[in-house]
Sequence to fold (565 residues):
Amino acid sequence: EAGGLRCRVASFFGGHKYFEIAQLEIQDVRTVYAPAVGIGNFGGETDNWRWPRHTGDWSFFRAYVGKDGKPAPYSKDNVPFKPQRFLKIQPAGLKSGDLVFVAGYPGRTQRHQTFEEVKQTTEWSFPRTIKTYVDQIAILEELGKQDKELQIKAASRLRGLNNTLTNRRGMLEGLVKGGILVQKQTVQKELEAWIAADPGRVKQYGEVLPALRALQAEVEKTRERDAVFAQLFSASTFLSSAHTAYLLSQEKAKKNDMDREAGFQERDWKRIREAQERVQRTLDARIDRALLRYAMGLAAALPADQRIEALDKAAGLTPGMAKADAEKAVDAYLDKLYKGTRLGDGDFRLSLLDKPTTDIVGSKDTFVDLAVALDPLYQEDHAAGKKRQGADSRLRPRYMQALLQKEGGLVAPDANSTLRVTFGQVKGVDNKDGLYWKPFTTLAGIEQKHTGEGEFDAPDRELEAIKALRGGKKTPFTAPDLGDVPIDFLSTVDTTGGNSGSPTLNGKGELVGLLFDGTFDTIASDFLYDKVRTRSIHVDFRYALWVMSEVDGAGHLLKEMGVMD
Fold:
């Protein structure tokens, strides 16, 4: 909209309520400061989702607008954005037991899913994700051993795969060993009994859960094929780019923007182009091919009643084909695909976004041909999904209304990437029998964990600064109750994926940290919140201020933010 507002409608309580969300979209954002990798990613995957943690996960950016104060594309003439209000940084920090607030955009939780939906996640979806992610990580790591350039290009994807893998393992452990699946079943049985106890409730809600079960059963009929089909596109940037261009050309052909599919309306065109520009930095046909080969291998192994027929025809695959023969057919087809494509060329890929459908189809690009051949199944799945979504949108609000009525309205809506505020206190946790996790970590942990190699390689200048402190140098960022500079802390706030980077405030609304993680043991709180054991991990701003002023010499930024004179 005019003035830079981006609006969307968000569903709460499964469609029981809807709210319009308006946000100011600033287009020109520039990096001001980020700590060294040995600080910002100290501990790497070994410490990911774990406590005790010693990661300095923060960065500073500056937002720019046009001289008129309104959002504008990047220009050297743009000026720093001046908000009406900003969060004051409080360098005094926190202590155990203090009240904290977190304001952020939690992505998705599934606390109000039915038992059948959680059962499918527990018994099929998460185990499958874990298996395929382990396989893809092994593929990328092997490529990295062969070539340094490939190692660099695969690094970002590897981090994403490893992060999600750890998350899913933690969730699955919580669902099974933590007894969440059993608890979900109990909750649902109690709801069904509550409905059955009153004829009026039976009339109003009696059909809802059986109908939701039927929808779930429909999803499960083709879940193997649907998962592999989606993986073909997620594995290959070449294939997904070709299909995106093809879909965009069809949507652009519609004269009325409101008739276009969500994600392909005029307001989305810039984002689609920017996404294609970004992937060029790490795009490599060798990585793309290795991951697509893996996905095609999964497709070759699909049962006879769940085949991706267009791929079978293109690659010469048949149901029940011997694995060695299938691999040979896939390799021959991949040779053809990558030999006959120009999608590795960023300019060509971007040019497709501006072409009509006829020109894209006539481009004689092998990946475009495959994307067009697969599109009928995509459209079939998309239509079936919309049909189920329509049925769900009629049932889910009644399901949530029943829950709300049963619990007297004391039910919080699931996270949906809208602004939420959560509160709690700085607090350690009894993690296991005889093991208590203190709420703060300090510089002492850096000294203990530093090996000078891999994930535990702190920068020399940080080690020198720590040495100076141990030699008697004073710093205002030492916590009196800890006798050291704090790094990270635990709190009882309720957060999930999407909350990373959310500001952590003290009881006066002052900025004291940034939330960036949860703990492995309680990741499954996405399905059922454990008010006793759930913890979130924050970087303590005293660590950020210490590093910026006494390690990196960025005191001028602290002065600008009003922290130092």
Remarks:
- The chain has three domains: 29-109+415-560, 114-197, 223-411.
- The chain has a mean pLDDT of 95.
